[in-house]
Amino acid sequence: MSAKKTLQIALPVPLPGCFDYLYPGTTPPARGSRVQVPFGRRTLVGLVHGHGLSDHPKLKAIQRVLDDSPVLPEELYRLCERAARYYHHPLGEVLSYALPALLRQGNDAEASQEKRWQITERGQHVSDDQLSRAPRQRQALHTLRDHPKGLSSAMLAALDVPAAALASLRDKGWAEQVTQEDSAPPRDILAQAPLAANAEQRKAIRALEEARGFSPFLLDGVTGSGKTEVYLQAMTAHLAAGKQVLVLIPEIGLTPQTVQRFRQRFAVPVATLHSGLTDRERLDNWLAARDGKARIIIGTRSAIFTPLAAPGLIIVDEAHDASLKQQDGFRFHARDLATWRAQQLDIPVVLGSATPALETLQLARDERFQWLKLSQRATDQGRPPIEILDGTLAAPGQPLLPQSLQAIKHCVEQGNQALVFINRRGYAPMILCQDCGWQAECRRCDSFLTWHRSEGSLRCHHCDYQQRVPSRCPDCGSSAIHEAGSGTEKLTELLEQSIQVPVIRIDRDATRRKGSLDAHLATIQQGNPVVMVGTQMLAKGHHFPKLSLVVILDMDAGFLSADFRGPEQAAQLLLQVAGRSGREDQGRVLLQTRHPDHPLLQLAASGDYPALASALLEERKMAGLPPFGHLALFRCEAMSMAKAMEFLQQLAGIPLPPDVYLLGPVPAPMERRAGRYRTQMLLQCANRPPLHQAISLLLEQARTLPAARQCRWHLDVDPIDML
To answer: Over the stretch 584-643, which tens digit does the pLDDT of each residue have?
Structure first.
């Protein structure tokens, strides 16, 4: 039997390797092109991985070639290959993750015709008096007048121009939508002059401007030191040379203000990539980046897989943030992939943070990263001191100490804004019976139910199980049921009773509706006295000029965490929250804690993050933990603890290289979650090669073990959450 031409296809299935299919045509599609193939009873879209010959008698043929040229450039394809190898994840799933949803579904890789809003000739002559009773329309008209070439829907959203106002202007004949035509790049890329930089900023900007080829930088700047201004000025030379800049941010909530800042500075197209976009918007922006039409690309962690026509610089803002690590499915870290990709593209990469991750900090100490320091705020104001208050002195049911409440009242009376930070949403973290000690627990998890008073329900924040609040204790029948602890909802209620200015709650519950977060932030940015009550959504990236007081509650858990990363992450959160205060006027930070004498907490409260980092790094070094060692975590869950444990016990019996230490298997710190029992097994090694060799051995056996069919399991390389 003569061999036939085949294609090796990477498919989005949880199986290793590629699959062979016959190709009946003459010229096979190039690597990175999409094809449609039969797979069992399904039809899947995969990417061509390679070409070959086969004499296998039962090979199926591809059904259709979807692309005339590769939809995924070779450079990006190689990045996916490297990520698949390092994280030991099926290549087909990694490649699929790198594509927008519409391309995964087999749609054409063509952008839709973008329409832009423009002011009409009649609209140019409209006076403000004609819109005296329509302030939003008046503002929308001013915005269009300031941009004679028109604005896209994304740009208008970034500038907070309401769609209803635009529709009203269109009905009056004062605005219109026109099809976007490709235009020549602007001669002057700057739309706004840069701000004056201090000596430290100028030194950092100069180092970034002089960088050639692959040059990794750590921009280590205290909160308010002007890291964004350094980014903006460093980008200018790359944009002027016709290059693109990729900017990664940790969370979608930071996208609007970041986009607005960049669009105000540069007269070049800016594209965004995040989960808040429609599938069509995401594909259009992805294609704009691939074709070189978008010059600045801003996105969350998945944006690291954006194709770039002319890459010049990669920036990772808030590079310490845990949100940059994908925690399900393909578990990658965007910070590390950004460095890999910059190395592959031979361009500079900047990791910016006020509280760098210890792994990044050690790379800078070892001179593998160039270390750029900004030790002073960009304004004349110094960092506010953190005052430690003994939280054990709080009255029952009163989360705020009298000193804290008095400070908040004084702050708003002076015309300033205050922030009360508590990283716990809901009214109270639990309810209990004062007679018998009963506590409301989740039926599916080893956790307590949080009382959401406004919804009249008890809710689990791990599996979203809900139930009504009982009127009597289910155990003893007593009516003495009370809440224990406080969340954002309770704090908001207490402050509304004591403070005469608006109290704005910002957490996942209060910002569930689309646009609600932007509306809250817009109110705050007006500068009127308000009190903010929020979770970590407010901890990073936001600039509130009138915020002069921050009160921080319940930060103890992080410093006492069973996870070795707990103190690091708690200190980062503490300093990031504290850094919101006193950007323009003298600020103040109050920290309520039940452990005021904890040495790590005191180090963090002193604002000396380098000293804290040194102490934690010394501990890590003695224990062989990252960055002085490397970890991989196998997790398993099943309907019974015995089945979950059996699978990992069978894995644990496989011989490993001598330098690899195996810890476990053991039940997870939260043994039961969403009705399933969880176990985990940790691999630890001083060097990566033996660790990855061990992982490959275990994975090869894991897929053949009978116990694997009775559970769900996954691998997490370089885990950041050990709980």
So the answer is: 677 889 999 888 888 888 888 888 889 999 999 999 999 999 999 999 999 999 999 999
Q: Among 160-174, 180-194, 259-273, 400-414, which is the least confidently predicted range?
A: 180-194
Question: Is 390 in the same domain as 537?
Answer: yes
Q: How far is CA 360 from CA 30, 338, 367, 606, in A?
A: 38, 13, 11, 22
* 3-class secondary-structure state, position 686: coil
Q: Round to whole Å and give the CA distance between 207 and 213.
A: 13
Q: What is the CATH number of the domain that holds 19?
A: 3.40.1440.60
Neighbours of 557 (CB within 10 A): 11
> Would you say 338 and 314 are in contact if contact means Cβ atoms under 8 Å apart?
yes
* Distance separating alpha carbons of residues 718 and 535, to the nearest angstrom: 26
Omega before 599 cis (within 30°)? no
- Select from 51, 82, 104 the last residue of a domain: 104
The pTM (predicted TM-score) of the whole model is 0.86
Name the region of 88 (left: φ>0; alpha: ψ -120 to 50; beta: rest): left
Tell whether the model's pLDDT for residue 431 goes beyond 80.
yes
Q: Which two tokens stand for residue 393?
A: 């002195």
| 545 lies in the same domain as 678 | no
Specify whether 333 is located in the same domain as 261.
yes
Q: Supply the CATH number for residue 316's domain.
A: 3.40.50.300
Into how many domains does the chain fold?
5
Q: Is residue 499 part of a domain?
A: yes
Computed over its alpha carbons, how large is the radius of gyration of the chain? 28
| Residue in this structure with the two tokens 């890999």, named with its chain if needed | 340
Same domain? For 10 and 88 the reply is yes
- Rounded CA-CA distance 97/545 in Å is 39
Structural contact between residues 165 and 117, judged by C-beta atoms closer than 8 angstroms: no
Predicted local confidence at residue 647, as pLDDT: 92
Q: Which residue has the higher pLDDT, 429 or 155?
A: 429
Look up residue 642 and give its DSSP letter.
Answer: H
Beta bridge partners of 484: 430
481 falls within a domain: no
In this structure, is residue 462 part of a structural domain?
no
- Percentage above 70 pLDDT, the chain: 96
CATH of the domain at 634: 3.30.70.600
Residues 411 and 543 in one domain: yes
DSSP string across 370-409: EEEEE-S-SSSPPPPPEEEEEGGGSPTT--S-HHHHHHHH
Question: Is 650 in contact with 705 (CB distance < 8 Å)?
Answer: yes
pLDDT digits (tens, 9 = 90+) for 526-551: 888 999 998 887 776 677 878 889 99
Give the pLDDT confidence of 367-407 residue by residue, as tens digits.
Answer: 999 999 998 876 766 678 889 998 888 877 788 999 999 99
Distance CA 315, CA 341 (A): 12
- Same domain for 69 and 119: no
Distance CA 90, CA 84 (A): 6
Q: Which residues contact 176 (CB under 8 A, 6 or more apart)?
A: 117, 118, 120, 170
Same domain (yes/no): 211, 144 = no
534 in the same domain as 587: yes
pLDDT of residue 350: 97
The residues near 588 (Cβ < 8 Å, ≥ 6 apart) are: 384, 385, 387, 407, 411, 548, 549, 550, 581, 582
Alpha carbon of residue 185 to chain centroid: 31
> 412: which strand partners?
none
Pick the last residue of a domain from 618, 650, 685: 618
The pLDDT of residue 79: 97
Per residue in 98-147, pLDDT (tens digit) is 999 999 999 988 877 667 888 898 888 888 888 888 888 888 888 888 88
What type of residue sits at position 46?
Answer: G
For residue 381, being part of any structural domain is answered with no
Give CA–CA dist 578/377, Å, rounded.
13
> Cα separation of 268 and 296, whole Å?
7
Range of the domain at 43: 4-104
